[in-house]
Each structure stands twice: as structure tokens, then as C-alpha cells.
Amino acid sequence: MRKIKNNELNRLTIGEYQSTKKLPIVVVLDNIRSCNNIGSVFRTSDALLIEKIVLCGITATPPNKEIHKTALDAEKSVKWEYVKNTEDAINTLKAGGYTVYAIEQVEGSIPLPDFVPGINKKLAVVFGNEVKGVQQPVVNICHGSIEIPQYGTKHSFNVSVCAGIVLWDIFNKMYRI
Question: Which DSSP symbol is given to 72?
């Protein structure tokens, strides 16, 4: 087997990407402190045709060389906006017809394997701070919570790893519908 070269991957240009139909998924980053994590979420969002990223609170915004280091220009292809208060961002998304889920370990959360996104449903998923997770007031106004089952001694993933797992799972489920 031969490794495929970059120029053989038929990658979209930024302009082509921006005009391509996206999945109706908005990623909300709630007070993410690491620019490397933010950049990784941009890159994952680009790969999975995510509609938009909403950056909230202390979450840094492009242009930023530390975000760029892991985003590798995905910060230029994926639509994004900054909203200072995460609750305001959630309320705006809800008013726009999005069903909003915190990605958090809470009572009554839906295990990710059991989550069914639904046909033509607009979703927003909220990823929280690397130490404190999604703020409780934000969890309180979400429609629900999705949790990644974990079985080892650690019960958390790095936020960018978590985003990759959740977004791939939802993408895979929505793309097959």
C-alpha cells in the first residue's frame, strides 16, 4: 500500500469550502484557555463540515499565532464569532431553532453511543473549560447533556480530544441519515 501524497487528496480551497453545504452543527467553546485546543477544534470542525464555532468568555479568537499553530488555516475556513457571555450565545442559538447540548458529566446525561441527532435537526454542542468544564449556569439552560462513557481511572478527556470524539460521532450519525 502506498501513502497518498497531499496533492492527491483533492482538498477544497478555502473558497470552495465556504460554499460547501455544512452540517447544521454549531460548536460553542465555553472559556477555553488553551489556544492549541481552540486551534484543534477549528481543524476538526473544518474536517467535519461544521457550520460555525462560537467562542465565548476567555476563549481566544483569531487571528492568533498559537491558534494557527494547530488550526493550520482552519481558522480562515470555518465561520466563527465571539460572544462574551456563553449564556447569551446559548439563548441566541435556542431562539434560532438549535437544540443545545452541553458535553458534560451530569445527572441524566445521554451516553454518546445512545445519542441520536435526528434528521434535519439544528444542533449546538458546548465544550467547557479544561479544568472546570461547562459552567453550571450554562448546563442549566441547555436542552440536555451528552457524556462520553469512560472506564479508566481518569474521567475526563482533553477538550480538543473530546470535541474530536463527539463531533466525529455526530457527523457519522448525521451523514448516514
Answer: T
Residues in the chain: 177
Distance CA 76, CA 7 (A): 20
Taking CA atoms, 117 is separated from 84, 153, 164, in Å, by 28, 29, 16
Bridge partners, residue 52, by sequence? 26
Residues 46 and 78: beta-carbon distance below 8 Å: yes
In this prediction the pTM is 0.96
- Tell me whether residue 82 is exposed, middle or buried, using C-beta atoms within 10 angstroms of its C-beta: 0 to 12, 13 to 18, 19 or more: middle
Angle at 21 between CA 16 and CA 25, to 5 degrees: 125
- For residue 177, pLDDT beyond 70: no
Domain 6-176 has CATH 3.40.1280.10: yes
Q: Which of 86, 85, 18 is nearest to 52 (CA)?
A: 18
Does residue 113 contact residue 41 with C-beta atoms inside 8 Å? no
